[in-house]
């Protein structure tokens, strides 16, 4: 092989190495950003893993316990008549039990006045509960199910720097309408849910001046979800993927202009795994 051919091969090898390096860097960035998308850091709002019972008949009762990328959740649903049912859901973030606010990493906020180690900062917690009423079996089909829910809930979030000083606290009420559609068999169920909700926030940020300390604002949310349940007739394993797209109003933008973005995060995606039991 002559010098010219050797030089061309050398250049080609370097291009391949550069391409591989760029691919590795891109993958690292994606892997780094993916947990942040799932966790939303110390979120002022964490969307619930919506109930999707796909009721069949009066008297059907279901419970579900799951762990997601940010919270533990307990769901219960019951069909109290031939066409109507009720559900009660609750969730509590991991920050209520330890210094971890999700399954990937510790709290990742940056102090608004100085850049410190984001891994070692304080404690975040979030609690939420809701109730909803359902109209189910709208297709009158043995396998395909369509049901709707309307309801409301209440949530609270709090974040502390260095485990003691409270940087913000936020309480909010929600109102929602939800549609569930799916296929339900004895040992397998799968489907999708879409929820439209509004949240009404009472927010307090302790680093601001007294005139800016309390802020009320409203947000709207579009929240699709996919779910799969598989197992026995009564006990199944369930997994869900939920997304949340916030629609930020002028009242929220007024708040966001006053405080760091880390103090107004909302969780935009989460995944859960749990057990589902039908009585």
Outline the fold blueprint.
Elements: H1 3-39, E1 61-68, E2 71-79, E3 84-93, E4 124-135, E5 144-161, E6 165-184, E7 188-205, E8 214-231, E9 235-243, E10 245-248, H2 250-256, E11 269-278
Antiparallel strand pairs: 1-2, 1-11, 2-3, 3-4, 4-5, 5-6, 6-7, 7-8, 8-9, 8-10, 9-11
Calculate the mean pLDDT score and round it: 79
Percent helix range: 10-25%
Anisotropy-based shape: globular
Q: Report, as a whole number of angstroms, the end-to-end distance.
A: 76 Å
Give the DSSP E fraction (strand runs of 2 or more residues): over 45%
Oligomer: single chain
Total number of helical segments? 2
Pattern of helices and strands: HEEEEEEEEEEHE
Low-pLDDT parts are 23-40, 99-122
Lateral arrangement of strands in the main beta sheet: 1-2-3-4-5-6-7-8-9-11
If you compute it from the alpha carbons, what radius of gyration comes out, rounded to the nearest whole angstrom?
23 Å
Descriptive terms for the model:
single chain, 279 residues, alpha+beta, ten-stranded antiparallel beta barrel
Explained architecture:
This protein is an alpha+beta fold. The protein is 16% helix and 49% strand. The chain has a ten-stranded antiparallel barrel. A hairpin with a 2-residue loop joins β1 (61-68) and β2. It is globular and about 55 Å long. The model is unreliable at 23-40 and 99-122 (pLDDT under 50).
């Amino acid at each position: 092989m002559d010098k010219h051919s050797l030089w061309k091969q050398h250049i080609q090898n370097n291009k391949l190495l550069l391409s591989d390096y760029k691919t590795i860097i891109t993958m690292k960035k994606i892997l780094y950003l993916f947990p942040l998308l799932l966790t939303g850091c110390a979120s002022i709002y964490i969307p619930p893993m919506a109930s999707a019972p796909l009721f069949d008949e009066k008297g059907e009762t279901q419970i579900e316990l799951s762990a997601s990328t940010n919270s533990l959740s307990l769901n219960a649903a019951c069909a109290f008549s031939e066409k109507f049912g009720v559900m009660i859901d609750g969730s509590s973030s991991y920050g209520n039990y330890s210094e971890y606010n999700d399954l990937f990493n510790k709290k990742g906020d940056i102090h608004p006045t100085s850049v410190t180690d984001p891994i070692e900062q304080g404690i975040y917690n979030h609690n939420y509960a809701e109730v909803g009423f359902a109209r189910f079996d709208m297709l009158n089909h043995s396998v395909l199910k369509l049901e709707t829910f309307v309801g409301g809930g209440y949530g609270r979030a709090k974040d502390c720097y260095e485990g003691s000083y409270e940087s913000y606290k936020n309480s909010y009420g929600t109102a929602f309408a939800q549609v569930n559609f799916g296929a339900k068999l004895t040992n397998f169920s799968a489907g999708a849910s879409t929820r439209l909700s509004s949240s009404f926030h009472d927010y307090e940020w302790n680093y601001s001046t007294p005139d800016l300390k309390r802020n009320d604002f409203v947000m709207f949310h579009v929240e699709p979800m996919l779910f799969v349940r598989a197992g026995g007739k009564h006990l199944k394993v369930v997994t869900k993927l939920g997304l949340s797209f916030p629609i930020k109003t002028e009242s929220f933008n007024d708040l966001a202009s006053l405080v760091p973005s880390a103090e107004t995060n909302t969780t935009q995606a989460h995944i859960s795994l749990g057990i589902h039991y039908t009585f």
